[in-house]
Amino acid sequence: MVAALGQARGQAAGVDAAPADAWPMYRGTASLTGVSKSKLGTSLKPLWTFKAKEGIHSTAAIADGKVYVGCDDGHLYALDFKTGKKLWAFATDDIVESSPLVHNGRVYFGSSDGFVYALTAADGKLLWKFETEDRVLGAPNLFQPSGGGAKPALIVGSYDFRLYSLDLGTGKSNWHYETANYINGSPAVSSGRTAFGGCDAVLHVIQLAEGKKEKQIDAEAYIVGSAAVVDDMAYIGHYENEFLCIDIKAGKIAWKYKDRAFAYISSPAVTADRVV
Fold first, then answer.
1. pLDDT tens-digit readout, 100-128
2. CATH no. for residue 231?
């Protein structure tokens, strides 16, 4: 079932959207709104298919004429956008459920082998890998500071209960932030902070320059998906069948939605006036 949950607080000026010709990361943009500037036609048909050896739980990233997607066979694949032809494949030691991030000629992603990887987007050569202490299922995100001082960084969570900030060039850890349980989803990045949940049933709001805690909001049940952030409001569902709008500046739940007895495990899309 797909449902429009209500009016989003914050109008069009606050909604970040992916460019019409690309989808370079999970949910399209760093704020994870799941919105593109392009429009779907009224009649859709498959242009090509790619047959992998095992299932695919990763979502694809699209950039510069290529499609990048992880697979349960332990590979990250690069495919030609127009034809679906395999261009290259990079092998890890376990399932790749993490969705990739493409930025400045590089592809970043995590694996259930516990590593975060950086590859050259053109040919899939390994640039660096960073070892966490457990699986990395959620997609990495990008922190691009607008002011001086802080450097751009890769932000990614792990099943070792930690959120990491990694140097884009070297993969070295800038800092890590401890939570009380697994981090499943991708951290949303907006206005110099990140908002993310996990199996500790808390929405964490972290200042990204130094990894300092801003807020911890009790979500009342564990969070599997990723939050979308628009104008200081985080939109996220949890495993006890409720969808929440959380005011991350005030540190409190603004509203809740509950309809049927189904857990919210996917991530929302947020437009100028709707949450889907």
1. 999 999 999 999 999 999 999 999 999 99
2. 2.130.10.10
Domain that holds residue 60: 12-36+55-257
Residue 181 CB-density burial (10 A; 0-12 exposed, 13-18 middle, 19+ buried): middle
Cα 195 to Cα 197: distance, rounded to the nearest angstrom: 7
Tokens 């047959």, residue? 51
In the chain, DSSP finds a helix count (H) and a strand count (E) of: 0, 20
For the cut 60, the answer to whether the pLDDT of residue 62 exceeds it is yes
Residue 4 lies in a domain: no
Nearest CA among 209, 24, 17 for reference residue 108: 24
pLDDT, tens only, 125-157: 999 999 999 999 999 999 999 877 789 999 999
Pick from 110, 106, 109, 131: nearest CA to 119: 106
**Dmax of the chain from CA atoms?**
49
Q: How many domains does the chain have?
A: 1
Cβ–Cβ under 8 Å, residues 126 and 117: yes
Sign, Cα dihedral of 236, 237, 243, 244: negative
Counting Cβ atoms within 10 Å, is residue 102 exposed (0-12), middle (13-18) or buried (19+)?
buried
How far is the CA of 139 from the CAs of 89, 210, 269, in angstroms?
Answer: 18, 21, 16
Decide if 49 is inside a domain: no
Query: What is the DSSP track for 132-150?
Result: -SS---SPPEEE--SSSSP
Burial zone of 184 (CB within 10 Å; 0-12 exposed, 13-18 middle, 19+ buried) = buried
